[in-house]
Amino acid sequence: MTDKDRLVPDEGLAPASTAVPAAGTLEEFTKPPQSQWREVWHQFKSHKGALYGGLLFLVIILWVYLGPLLWDLDPTKIDIRARNQGPSLAHPFGTDQLGRDTFSRMMAGGKTSVSVGITAMLLALGLGSLVGVLAGFFKRLDGLLMRLTDLFLALPLLPLLLVMMLLFRDPLNAAFGPEQGIFILIVVSIGVTSWMPTARIVRGDVLAIKEREFVLAARSIGTTNTKMILRHILPNVLSPIMVSATLGIATAIITESSLSFLGLGFPPDFPTWGRLLFDATDYLQQYPERVFWPGLAISLTVLSVNYLGDGLRDALDPRIRGR
User: Fold this and answer.
1) Which letter does DSSP use for residue 265 in this model?
2) Are 126 and 199 in contact (CB under 8 A)?
3) Planar angle of CA 59, 64, 65, nearest 5 degrees
4) Full-model pTM
5) pLDDT over 70 for what percent of the chain?
6) Residue 322: how many CA atoms within 13 Å on its side-chain side?
7) Among 323, 321, 289, which Cα is nearest to 38's?
8) What is the largest CA-CA distance in the chain?
9) Which residues contact residue 94 at a Cβ distance below 8 angstroms, ignoring those fewer than 6 apart?
10) Cβ atoms < 10 Å from Cβ of 59
């Protein structure tokens, strides 16, 4: 073979490919990873029930807290001449047997009921998270705290609440006044009797997380238990805590409404949705709409919170989020 033949490329061999990779493929390699909270929000938006439930709950919150600023009728003002009126421009939901505006009483009652639900939920969430983290992280406390949790779960909730209301109503009323005292009593009563599900859920997650590699690595470098819980355990159990928080609001609102309906809640002249429902039962045949409005408000609030909790559970669970 001559030198000239060596310089001529073989016609049977294809030239080396110099094509640039497709733009889409290159973007896939250079695209920054999506943040976890953006993935959570994307999954939450895909749950239509949770999205609509969150919007409805936000509307209810704005209505009960900001509505009285725009609708300035006093919910406790008595006007006998305007009693038992139907819906009108002056009174969109009508008036009750004493001439009080039902629309303003619905907003005032919703503010009380939602405030009780949120405050009682925070108390139950704090107690449940504390017991769950301690029981899951410290093995020597696990048996004692879980047996205490089982004991509270075995107690009948409604009779226990009734006994607490009867025992502590008068002392708290004398110390803080009838409205503030009943508010504290109802919040504490609901909070200390509804922390158990949160404790059991948090304990199960802590038991699984404390055996993970990053926790073992943190323990190997001498991280204290307090820093271990605050920096590594609690941030990884936020998912069940947030879900329990949303569902706890619904439970607390139903419990407060039940107590008020039984006449053991706030004073008769202090409106709550349960108290409005109780007052309307005497006029059920003549004015059935009086039962409809507070019942609808309770149902919509509880339904929206439950849908919101379902959406948060699906969005925050990594096993479901990838589906």
Assistant:
1) S
2) no
3) 100
4) 0.79
5) 86
6) 2
7) 321
8) 121
9) 84, 85, 86, 87, 88, 102, 287, 289, 290
10) 12
| DSSP SS3 for 101 | strand
CB 261 within 8 A of CB 274: yes
d(CA 103, CA 24): 58
**Can you tell me the distance from the alpha carbon of 53 to that of 311, in angstroms, rounded to the nearest whole number?**
9
Q: How many CB atoms lie within 10 A of CB 239?
A: 17
**CA gap 115, 129 in Å, rounded:** 21
The tens digit of pLDDT for each residue in 204-252 reads 989 988 888 888 888 888 888 888 888 888 888 887 888 888 888 988 9
44, 52 in Cβ contact below 8 A?
no
Backbone angles phi, psi at 17, to 5 degrees: -75, 130
Residue with tokens 């029930």: 49
Task: Name the 3-class secondary structure at 184.
Answer: helix
Q: Which two tokens stand for residue 300?
A: 């919509």
CA 136 to chain centre: 23
CB atoms within 10 A of CB 316: 19
Tell me how far apart the alpha carbons of residues 232 and 236 are, in angstroms, rounded to a whole number.
7
Residue 53: helix, strand or coil by DSSP?
helix
Instruction: For residue 295, give the 3-state DSSP assignment.
Output: helix
Q: What is the DSSP letter of 323?
A: -
Q: Which residues contact residue 267 at a Cβ distance below 8 angstroms, ignoring those fewer than 6 apart? A: 178, 179, 182
Q: Tell me the HSE value of 15 on the side-chain side, using a 13 A CA sphere.
A: 4
Q: Is 291 exposed, middle or buried (0-12, 13-18, 19+ CB in 10 A)?
A: middle
Q: Which residues of the chain have pLDDT under 70?
A: 1-37, 317-323
Write the CA distances from 54 to 12, 31, 220, integer angstroms.
67, 31, 43
Tokens (6 digits) for 226: 């307090």
